[in-house]
Amino acid sequence: MPGPAGPEAPQARMRAVKVLLTSADPKARELTQLAVRAIGRTLDEPVEFLEAADGVRGIRLAWRDRPEVVVADEISSRAGAFALARDLKGAAEPYPGVVVVLLDRPHDAWLAKWSGADAWFTKPVDPFALADRLVELVRAHRGRGSERAMEETG
What we know:
Layout: E1 17-22, H1 26-36, H2 38-43, E2 47-52, H3 55-65, E3 69-73, H4 81-89, E4 98-103, H5 109-115, E5 119-122, H6 127-153
Parallel strand pairs: 1-2, 1-3, 3-4, 4-5
Helix pairs in contact: 1-6, 3-4, 4-5
């Protein structure tokens, strides 16, 4: 048995929740990040953030880096949150992660639904409600993934 100077067991890398925040407003991204960071405590996992200042970049980052959660602000320039959600969720092979849209006006909820977003919130967003809903969505998403894996192998 190796002593204190002997080789150590490799540290298992802890799973992290990867989250993409898309907004033209840096302050909005910062405030959203503060709210979303709370999901890490509930899920007992670190949270890694990616950021995009517009929907076009958000779409590229989502498909390239495959974050588990995408939170898109309606005011995203170039391609907005609805275009981003529609591109991800309306693809021939729909995006496997959770997509949430932050609305400027409550009557835009129909657009969020049309876009395929998994959930939407009207601003100003209650940070606790956002974090709680994201935890529910992530857990449900992970449950669907394990059910699919069992179907494929069983």
